[in-house]
Amino acid sequence: MNQNASIGEKIKALRTSQNMTLKQLSEKTNLSTGFLSQMERGMSSIAIDTLENIAGVLGVSLTSFFDEEPVKDISDPVVHSFGLPAVQVGPQIIQHILSHDVSSFDFLPRIFTLLPLANTAEENLEMYTHNGEEFIYILEGIATIQVGSSQYTLYPGDSIQIHSNESHNWMNHTNKVVRLLTVNVPNPFRHAESGHIMPDDPHGQTPDFLRQYQTAADYPEY
């Protein structure tokens, strides 16, 4: 079963368990009944921000729509897009790790999805510092990267490389989703150190997705 079909089935099951009709879900989400019907049948893809809207109406966490324990074969070096686990590492930030075997390599590639207005509600943005280097490439949307006292606006195709001992973080000031490709050296799953945005579990299998901004210091070194 592909991911769209799996998500659609879960939405339908949640909706019917709450005795909610498609029309009622449509009215609460401002999405058409035709779109919702297609989505429940796995015939339509769905954006993360739209899925977050539906999750809020149904009273569940965003990541409840994704498989919590994807089957991984670490002997296969190919990471397929349809098999990426989604791990919520902040209220509006979702992480995908682009490796089956995070403990075997010196660098860590990841994709982060920043939902609309991510990191903009805080009066004082939490800044991160750690050893090594960090590369950020914008795949989608417009990101604001804070490095020290400087802010940079990056568009799709733009990139920035920083020394990670400079305080840094990112924001999404728009009402569209932002997707970032990041590469960290050294790999925080191999060299435990505070200052990284990390999930509760390095393999994305933890059942509690709502703890915020855990760091590599919470893990034993591999």
Structural class: alpha+beta
Give the C-alpha Rg.
Answer: 18 Å
Largest sheet: number of strands, sense, barrel closure:
6 strands, antiparallel
Distance from N terminus to C terminus (CA atoms, Å) equals 34 Å
Order of neighbouring strands in the sheet with most strands: 1-2-3-9-4-7
* Anisotropy-based shape: globular
Which percent range describes the beta-strand content?
Answer: 15-25%
Total DSSP helices: 4
Order of helices and strands: HHHHEEEEEEEEE
Helix content: 10-25%
Number of strands: 9
Which consecutive residue ranges, at least 5 long each, have pLDDT under 50?
200-222
Mean pLDDT: 79
Protein name: Cupin domain-containing protein
Pfam family, one: HTH_3
Organism: Drancourtella massiliensis
Keywords: DNA-binding
Architecture overview:
The protein is α+β, with helices and mostly antiparallel strands and 222 residues long. Helices cover 19% and strands 23% of the residues. The chain has 4 helices and 9 strands; from the N terminus they run ααααβββββββββ. The strands form 2 sheets. A 6-stranded antiparallel β-sheet has the order 1-2-3-9-4-7, with no helix packed on it. A 3-stranded antiparallel β-sheet has the order 6-5-8, with no helix packed on it. The longest helix is centred in the first third of the chain and has 15 residues. The protein starts with a helix and ends in a 37-residue tail after the last strand. This is Cupin domain-containing protein. Keywords: DNA-binding. Pfam families: Cupin_2, HTH_3.
